[in-house]
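In the design runs reported in the main text, the only information available to the sequence generator was the tokenized backbone. The following block is the verbatim input for one such run; it is reproduced so that readers can re-run the procedure and compare outputs position by position.
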């Protein structure tokens, strides 16, 4: 499973020329179709060939990297059935890494000076790993779900009351019994919250889904610390004792999909409601200028498409045509995807990148400060 740490590690890879191959390939679900996979990779390699200003000769996938991809597919494709796999290869840097992704993504092959990571960011946002806590009054389970993998932790059952405590008592005494049950439950929710806290410390803040009976979910939510409550993505009602881990993943997966859709919608609305204070950039030209000035706080990018362009090796300025800065146009280097360049420079500046189905103007950004000499 890909994580932000893996993305950062990939982004630290750098070649002198455009020799790093990034391949995103859909592995068929049916093993019988695997034999067509190398040919499909070859088609994508052909689409990655490029030439023209800013390149020194024709850029194409090298024989050694084709060989690495073939070998990886031959040995591991059976583990990736039904998944999009990301493969990064560069023989001169001894790079050969593969990651099966949790959701289907557009196929592509890209040759650049570093790995092409936009699809990885999209996968992490669309199919994040997340926690599910299932609770009832005596039991708690914590599930950490990453794609199809489910890790389950079971909390020891809370001590019960002796059975005579539940029947034949009336009035005040009955209330006392009830108090005692709620108090026990609170302790036990607290234990579950501690378990969640420990898991979150290991893998960072992740969306949280809570499942259980109608009344236990809000009670558990109430004992969570505020920071953890902010991660709450949603709930589902079910009797914990009737569920398998796979069923928990199905129910929670729907909650996460709704949560991700609502988050994207909210980001779009917030962007459209920004005051006209010059702190937004809409469209590629405005976002290129904003990235060149290190002004981007949040950039909304599309999932698909590659937009070829240029980068100045001296000042880092990005442009659609060679020479988008005071330096010699002849020095500009061709880059296969300006959207990737904007995304990576935003991350390097401590900003955020969010993939949306239809960002305003195809790409849009919220800025830390208005751009010099421009209004948006
Ligand atoms: Zn320059």
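Verbatim output:
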């Amino acid at each position: 499973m890909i994580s932000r740490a893996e993305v950062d590690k990939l982004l630290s890879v750098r070649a002198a020329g455009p020799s790093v191959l990034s391949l995103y390939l859909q592995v068929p679900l049916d093993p019988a179709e695997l034999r067509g996979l190398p040919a499909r990779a070859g088609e994508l390699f052909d689409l990655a060939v490029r030439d023209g200003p800013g390149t020194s000769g024709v850029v194409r996938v090298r024989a050694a990297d084709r060989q690495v991809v073939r070998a990886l597919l031959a040995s591991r494709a059976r583990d990736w059935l039904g998944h999009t796999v990301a493969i990064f290869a560069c023989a001169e840097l001894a790079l050969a890494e593969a990651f099966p992704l949790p959701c289907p993504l557009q196929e592509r092959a890209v040759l650049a000076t570093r790995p092409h990571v936009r699809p990885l960011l999209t996968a992490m946002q669309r199919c994040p790993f997340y926690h599910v806590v299932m609770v009832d009054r005596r039991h708690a389970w914590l599930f950490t779900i990453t794609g199809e993998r489910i890790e389950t932790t079971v909390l020891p059952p809370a001590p019960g009351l002796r059975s005579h405590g539940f029947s034949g008592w009336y009035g005040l005494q009955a209330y006392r019994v009830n108090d005692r049950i709620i108090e026990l439950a609170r302790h036990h929710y607290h234990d579950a919250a501690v378990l969640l806290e420990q898991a979150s410390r290991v893998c960072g803040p992740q969306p949280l889904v809570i499942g259980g009976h109608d009344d236990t979910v809000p009670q558990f939510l109430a004992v969570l610390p505020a920071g953890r409550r902010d991660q709450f993505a949603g709930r589902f009602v079910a009797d914990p004792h009737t569920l398998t881990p796979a069923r928990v993943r199905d129910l929670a997966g729907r909650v996460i999909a709704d949560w991700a859709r609502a988050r994207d919608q909210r980001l779009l609305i917030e962007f459209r409601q920004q005051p006209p204070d010059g702190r937004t950039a809409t469209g590629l030209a405005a976002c290129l200028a904003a990235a060149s000035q290190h002004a981007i706080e949040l950039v909304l990018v599309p999932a698909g498409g590659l937009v070829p362009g240029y980068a100045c090796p001296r000042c880092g300025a990005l442009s659609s045509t060679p020479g988008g800065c005071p330096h010699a146009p002849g020095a500009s280097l061709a880059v296969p995807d300006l959207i990737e360049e904007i995304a990576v420079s935003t991350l390097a500046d401590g900003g955020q990148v969010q993939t949306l189905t239809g960002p305003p103007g195809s790409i849009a950004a919220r800025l830390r400060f208005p751009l010099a000499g421009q209004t948006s």
